[in-house]
Amino acid sequence: MMIALRFIASLAILIGCLWAARLATAAFALSLPAPLLGLVLLFILLQTGIIKSKYLLPSCGPILKYMAVFFIPAGVGLICYLDILGENAWLLVSVLTLVPALGLLLTGKLASKGRYYD
Amino acid sequence: MINMLLGCSVTLVLFFVMRRLNQRWRSPVLNPVLLCIVLISACLLITDVDYIDYRNATTPISFFLEIAVVALALPLYQQLHAIRPYLVLICACSFVGISSATLLAFLLCQLFGASTALSASLMALSVTTPITLIVTDSLNGLPGVAAIMVILIGVLGGVFGLSLLRLAGVTQPQAKGIALGVACHAIGTAAAMEHHPAAGAFASAAMIISAVITASWVPVLFTLLQGIIS
């Protein structure tokens, strides 16, 4: 029972941040995505100590651990675009290989300029 | 209501079965999300169920997508003191990595003459899927295409990323972690964690920081690039 209550309370904090961010983006016509603003908002609340991280753990733990499951419905949406995928197969293959390769090489090289203390 | 119960339970059960499978044979190729998407897509195509019906039946699952983005604030907060000395470096790396990946994807789209909707779906592929979906949505792209591409990029990065970095002469685990986190999001981060604990910590910090940078910077960059082309 307590566990369920803790879960609901911490989920309510997350939803509260998301809604506050939605209101803010709508009210000020911001082009920033609302969930991102919610992330920043929650981060500020944590950093200023208004919200303790232990309040968030009951819902954040499972949500972050199983985050991948939330993408499945969106991913299945690809069946609406099978013809587009087929027509652009070469573009997609080159994006799939070249984009992460360039990203890895550039960031890897740049990051290895840093001095790290073990 | 019955549809919703059926859609959600089938999706969740399949995901946990695939996760088990992935834990048994540890391989990024057996990515649970990828397997689930392929299997459910095949089922819908075979049984002739409309995608819209499936999407409506799984709204409770999709509802958590935006909440998961907000929840990313917690790991960022928890790691901040460990990475504080490297914060500027990680931000600079993320910015360079994201910008160059977006630029390359845009150039490839122009080269192959892709439609605007398709180009918009290929702009934000280096980051974690919820951010990609949000950015794709704001650019009027095709979320289904973006989601599957992000996952495939993560899988490729997880399989080949570390070897590529070794070939390029990147030796420090921290640098490898940053590169994997920026270029290959959560699946790359998982590979970095298996490689070295320091690499894992830097990868997850880099992943979250590049999520913030992507969501705010890629839409601007895409608009700029389109302005230059037209």
Automatic annotation (TrEMBL), chain A:
| Major subcellular location class | membrane
Lineage, please?
Bacteria, Pseudomonadati, Pseudomonadota, Gammaproteobacteria, Alteromonadales
Could you tell me which species this protein originates from?
Pseudoalteromonas viridis
The record gives the membrane topology as: Multi-pass membrane protein
Q: What protein am I looking at?
A: CidA/LrgA family protein
Keyword entries, A-Z: Cell membrane, Membrane, Transmembrane, Transmembrane helix
Compartments where found: Cell membrane
Q: Is the keyword Repeat assigned to this protein?
A: no
Record field: transmembrane: 33-51, 63-84, 90-108
InterPro entries, alphabetized: LrgA/CidA
UniProtKB/TrEMBL annotation, chain B:
Mind telling me which Pfam families this protein's record contains?
LrgB
Q: Please give the name of this protein.
A: LrgB family protein
Q: Which domain of life is it from?
A: Bacteria
Any transmembrane segments, and where?
29-49, 61-80, 86-109, 116-136, 142-165, 199-225
InterPro entries, A to Z: CidB/LrgB
Keyword Transferase belongs to the record:
no
Compartmental location? Membrane
Q: Look up and give the membrane topology term.
A: Multi-pass membrane protein
Keywords (alphabetical) are: Membrane, Transmembrane, Transmembrane helix
Claim: Lipid metabolism is one of the keywords in the record: no
